[in-house]
């Protein structure tokens, strides 16, 4: 009679000890995840939700398909760009309140607290889905207002060397960030109305209307915008008379407000010119390449000295890739700089700029073979900045209007030595 072998239970536990520890660790992680989800959804536990069981199951399924939104790993516009299609395509059978529950349940713990505090004393189920999206965009998206994001969207252009796939992706992402899928017919009319205000004379009106549109949110009609224009006009007409001292300050405020921007090349040198339309002060940047990044870097260097302008008049060819590039447009948008064509700008200042441009080109083309471009244009800049142009306030020189003082003349200037590099601002170093 054979005897069966008995395997000790202690030996079995030893064999599976390592697997048991791994399983215990996995269960612990799952429990933590469940606790996090329970914390996020506890606000909804007390809400009276009247739904069909299939609707509830759909909500539950969609919630598991959407990852949590957490800062700073991504902004909300980036998160919604990835998963917004789920809300547009997969939630058509859900009511608005349920869509809000689904969206808010996917917020991280800190993001959920910030959102609930921002809408207090309202509960999370009271704002509509559209209002919830708008609020989350304002809290967790990039800092641009909704109206500015939409204006940026309608101004999108394809870069010359940009791949079609990349351009499509950029259009799709900007569409999502601008919430264009939620825009009404009347809101679109208002957007195009503001988009068409490109004259420097209407810059203040444009800025004021954008602020009003952001304040009022949805529901604004084109007729309301017309009334706001009348209100703006009336407010300006009621301003008190400007005293003499205030007039002097207002004249000074015109300096470096509207600049002519031009970009061209002569032989191997690429020239960027910024020309103040009020003081006629020229700034010239010389570089060896024509990249949009070079132009933006040069602008940033010059603006760090004189401040940001209000308007850039594109005196160059408006079809140039550099000024239509994503980098250039984003830089101007981020700094609230309005770009416009020479149409509507003072013809006198434009004529002065064209005259300076001809002088500049002539000096560069006729320079000595041993002379660099920067060395050739330096005397021209000193001379031009010390001149008085026809119609100048109180017959002041360009430097006196721009800086409040005159410059030393060429003969008095001490020798200045330039150090070679990637690029330089051709400026009047002696002063």
Question: What would you note in describing this structure?
Answer:
The protein is built from 19 helices and six strands. It is α/β, with parallel strands linked by helices. It has a six-stranded mixed β-sheet with strand order 5-4-1-2-3-6, with helices on both faces. It starts with 8 loop residues before the first helix and ends in a 5-residue tail after the last strand. Mean pLDDT is 77; it is low at 1-16, 45-52, 242-251, 410-414 and 427-431.
Key traits:
alpha/beta; 431 residues; nucleic acid binding; 3 domains; DUF7083; 8% strand; disordered C terminus; DUF7083 domain-containing protein; RNaseH_sf; 6 strands; RNaseH-like_sf; Nucleotidyltransferase, domain 5; disordered N terminus
Name the helix and strand elements from N-terminus to C-terminus, one letter apiece: HHHHHHHHHHHHHEEEHEHHEHHHE
Query: Can you tell me the CATH class of the largest domain?
Result: Alpha Beta
Distance, first to last CA = 115 Å
Helicity, as a percent range:
40-55%
Strand content: 5-15%
> Any idea what the shape is?
elongated
Major sheet: size, sense and barrel closure?
A: 6 strands, mixed
CATH names the topology of the largest domain as Nucleotidyltransferase, domain 5
Report the count of strand segments: 6
Query: Based on the structure given, which CATH architecture of the largest domain is correct?
Result: 2-Layer Sandwich
The poorly predicted ranges are: 1-16, 45-52, 242-251, 410-414, 427-431
Strand order of the largest sheet: 5-4-1-2-3-6
CATH superfamily of the largest domain: Ribonuclease H-like superfamily/Ribonuclease H
Spatial extent as radius of gyration: 31 Å
The total number of structural domains is 3
What is the averaged pLDDT score? 77
* Total of DSSP H or I helical runs spanning 4+ residues: 19
Class by helix and strand content? alpha/beta
InterPro entries: DUF7083 (IPR055510), Retrovirus_Pol_polyprotein (IPR050951), RNaseH-like_sf (IPR012337), RNaseH_sf (IPR036397)
GO molecular function, one term: nucleic acid binding
Protein name: DUF7083 domain-containing protein
Pfam family, one: DUF7083
